[in-house]
Amino acid sequence: MNYLAYLFPVLFQIQNQTDNMNKSMVMNYLHDFGYLPITKATDNEMKAALQDYQYFIGMKPTGEMDNETMDMMLRPRCGKPDEEKERTKRYTFLGNSTWAKKDLLYRFDSYPLGINSNDVHAEFKRAFNAWAKYVKMSFKLVQNTETSDISINFRSLDGEGRSIGYALHPTHGVVILDKDETWTMEGEGVNLFQIAIHEIGHSLGLGHSSKRSSVMYPYYLGYNRNAGLDIDDIKGITTLYASHTSDARSPKGDNTELCRDPKIDTIFTAPDGYVYVLKNNQYWKFLPNFVMVDGPDLIQNRWPGLPSKIDAAFTSWNNVTIFYKGLYMWKYVLNKQFGEPKLIEDGYDKVPSHIDATFIWSGSGHLYFFRGDKYWMYNSYKPLGMRVKYIFPLPIWYWNGVPNNINAATSIGGDTYFFKGRYYYKYDSMNRMVYAGYPRSTAKNLFGCT
User: Fold this and answer.
1) According to the model, what pLDDT value does residue 1 have?
2) CA distance 207 to 278
3) What residues make up the catalytic site (predicted)?
4) Which fold has domain 103-245?
5) Catalytic annotation on 199?
């Protein structure tokens, strides 16, 4: 009797059952963390969800369930879904919710095993202070019998591994850490400070970041004795709480020239997370909430080989900064020029030269160019020759309230800023119109001039 004839169908059936089980587990995982709206999906829906997941966590978005992807899914992580996965920014917000008050109280309702409560208090205090350094807020520990804004609990989530923490966004004020983990101050186990600073970020309104060096990256990548806020975290929290820091306008640099004549050449966010303002042959450096941190300095000192009086600039999602002037454009990677200057028409089909402004708009994720009374949308995901639709250019009046002949523009967080002369216009990307009360004085409201 040929037993193999009977064995092969059985083995094939077992393999199919295993594949279906693995597929079901992956679907559930992608559903739990915000990549699939349902737990049953077609192969195409599954592939698209995997691509979104892989892209967000910093892997090549193949859409295939390879070993690297499986290894990442098996790592412990925050239990909160990766709710916003835009390709044009790293830090994300949890619905733009924030605390209106500046003095928050927190308490512990339970503690982990194996760590003294005083040590737990010390680690959380250190984590709260890391965020407080960049926003004008205070955090005070109170007894568990007192009313608080944020309660901290250690309780079972899903057993050891996978979800190790969870937090609700403002103003719910709940932080939960999995009591089944082996919590430690350093070395083996799960580091308490690293998870505390992450979950506190959620409780302040930040979502997950796709940047691995960010404390808001969803996965625990092991103990890091130098753990602390990355520039991505600082950019996110200062953007979210700009109103809390709006009175912190004492520039560390010299704003004299910007106060004398606030008309600028261009403005953009660089890969380091800071906002740079360029004017003539100089630049100034700001936090995303427009608190000055440095400048002026010569453009040549930071971007060697770049000419003065730049027309426009932006930083792409892969951290390449592109500058435009006249007919030409320059590419820089980490402040070093990449290749020779090239004609704009050679790099972008159907995009004009001598542009007024350019930026990646958070409302669509596409690149926009402005000149005079017209604008162009450039879709880099389309094949060459099809990246600018035939309907462009379109009149600027489609951007409700934005004037013609702007000098500069940039998108920060969910808002876009247009600059013309001594004034700026803040654009509401959600409602697609300039906010009420604009234009406003650039010198007074953004550059800290009195």
Assistant:
1) 42
2) 31
3) 199
4) Collagenase (Catalytic Domain) (3.40.390)
5) yes
